[in-house]
Every structure is written in structure tokens, then in C-alpha cells.
Design goal:
With 67 residues, the chain is an all-alpha fold. Helix content is 90%, strand content 0%. The chain has 2 domains: 34 residues; 32 residues. It has 2 helices and no strands. It is flat.
Length: 67
Amino acid sequence: DGLLPNLLAFNVGVEIGQLLALSAILILMGYWRRTTSFWKHAYTANVLMMTAGFVLIGYQLTGYFIA
């Protein structure tokens, strides 16, 4: 009883929330890019994210070869 409309309404709500969050992030990033500290912090954040990615892929590969 009403499962399909509720499911569709939930999914549409989630997508709208994601679009709003992405819009806010893009606006904030646009303002941050205009500051002088952007390149220093952006470089550090990229290095940290790449390091985390390599660690996670190491965990995945270790689990794949051991299991």
C-alpha cells in the first residue's frame, strides 16, 4: 500500500539533498579558491587523500590475496 510512491519520494528527496550539498560545496570551494592560502592547503589535502587511497587499496589487496 503506497510502497512505490514512498520509495520514489524517498529517492527523489535523497537526490535533491545531494544536489543541495554539492551546490553548497561548489560555492564554498569557489570562494576558497580566491584566497592566498588555497594552493598550500589544496596540495596538502591532495597528498593526504592520495595517501589514504593507497593505504585503502593496500588493505583491499592484502585481504584479496590472504582470503
